[in-house]
Amino acid sequence: VGRTGALTPVALMEPVKLAGTTVTHATLHNFDEIERLGVRVGDSVVVEKAGDIIPKVVRVLDKLRTGEEKKVRQPKTCPVCRSVVQKYGLATGESKEGVALICSNNKCYAKELENIIHFVSKKAFNIDGMGEKIVGQLLDEGLIKNVADIFTLKLGDLEVLERFATKSAQNLIEAIDNAKKVTFARFIFALGILHVGVETAEKLAEHFATLNKLMKASKEELENLSDVGPRVAQSISDYFAESDNKKLLEDLITNGVKIQTIKKQKDSENLAGMTFVLTGTLPNLSREEVTEKIKANGGQVVGSVSKKTSYVIVGESPGSKYDKAQELGVNILDEENFLKMLK
User: BRCT domain: which residues (predicted)?
Assistant: First the structure.
């Protein structure tokens, strides 16, 4: 169960080596995909890594069936809170239509857990030391119920918990305090609005500049932004229209969160008009650092390789994107030559 309440079916498999790692789980995306593939419990399947990261089932080897395989049944209730699930239109955003099964309980433990994990993640509030186990512990102990409660935690709340010594408790309190100052783009992304990723959050922050202006934006105004279509605009409007979300935003500000507006100045236009794809692990720079450098010099980072891609930046253990670049004759760069382009 994800932070939006979507139930994602996952295939549990015998351990298999895939692109250098051993995997035992693979995504089946949704129940329409299970139907399309014809997957059954006990099947032998073909698995590949999607985008070099997530294993997914792509084909069933039905000729290897023994006759003992069983059909996969759609759950009628959430596996975590046992609330009724409903169909949700991924394209339309309308309930009872589409391919996703959604837990109907807005207070579902799994939803809140994933929401908080997303909120504190590196690309959002980046609260160091607040991993999944700590978030789960704080929820289970009743110390937090939502993301706003994070900023009310005191040293004494943490010191008495298992796995917390005085020093580790102090470190987490300091990390939370440091995270109170956050850029508007990170704040928007941290909210976990459906269909709003890092790049969309950056565009919203740049255009609206303040939370108040974004909350008051009409659906039409949102749609006028590049890369914000009707579905994304509707999702943003729906989020800010909900009274629970308005209360959450008020509580975040009351509890000390300060949104900083930073106007980005480009270092240069050296990469203007160029598109880049990243694959593999670079020796010195993280993907986030490379992405920032590309954007700061007028370039753009995309997720997949095509004939229109300017360069593919390749590190150690590259995936299928490297093969695709070679197949299409796209220019390939290592870290050293990429950095030379910036000078």
Answer: 266-343
